[in-house]
Amino acid sequence: MDAAHPTQNEDTRRRTENREPRTENRENQNLRNVGTVEPGTHSEYAVKMDKGFANPQLLTVPQDLAAAIEKNAKLLILDLRPAEDFAAGHIPGAVHLDLWGVSLIDTDPAPLKAFMWMIDHVLVFRGVDGETPIVVYDEQSGIRAARAFWFLEYFGHPRVQMLDGGFNAWVRAGLPVTRDAAAPPKSTWSGTPQPSRIASWRDVKDRLNSRDAVILDTRTDGEYYGTTVRAKRGGAIPGAVHIEWTRNLTPAGDFKPASELRAMYESAGVTPDKEVVSYCQGGYRAAHGYLALRLLGYPRVRNYTGSWKEWGDREDLPIDVPRPE
After folding, report:
1. Is 294 a catalytic residue?
2. Which of 55, 86, 179, 252 is spaced 20 to 30 Å from 272 by Cα?
3. pTM of the entire predicted model
């Protein structure tokens, strides 16, 4: 477990070897209006997306979030961006939660249990309970919000959405921004862990060469091919399918339509009949792959939270060094 000091700047934190990833997509193009409110689904402010997702309720869009805020809906909005970005301006009513520097590199039972206990405590401290709908966002439909989404699903929260396109989409829509900080609501919630959402190194090892499972590598080309080394060893988990997380998004930073995502994953052998274990360097980008597949309706998806930092450091675990075709 390793937490970055809160006064460190973002560049310093991104250079730490077990962080996720060094750069994020910051393109600032127009975001299409992709949804309308459909009462009675998932929650009062669920969204009917026109992107064809099997689970469209996992996303919301700026206009619908703004409508919920205007109606004073009971809603917890979590801003996952760096503290300095939150201070410069955020969605009204949002509570800041920066989990960037908190990661795990040992998924043996005891440290994994302790790490998740800590995350549960942090979520409660920021106002998470078991009933209030939650919207998570960062700069775009990015890895910060995706990781928070995954944590909340791991703890069994029933009403979590990501703001598709993130804060950039909110600003482009001309919606209000504030510098006022909202106090987190009090909560005594304790999540109920969902073991089917997470994978340890043992889980991954047990699934090597399995016809019923596929390992999804969401890292960069350099990391996958072993030319960018961020652990004791460079390379990939044997048999992993490589689809970098950025391929889930449009240039504007929102999720691509389901038809494009489905074709991309299924053509690579990542099919809904298989259990999918997603990994990266420390479970951040892997959470984005997790969310993309959840949107598509894949029933069995796990995040290997220890990811390559753990796997690559353990010389008792097998690796592959793929060659570019």
Report:
1. no
2. 252
3. 0.85
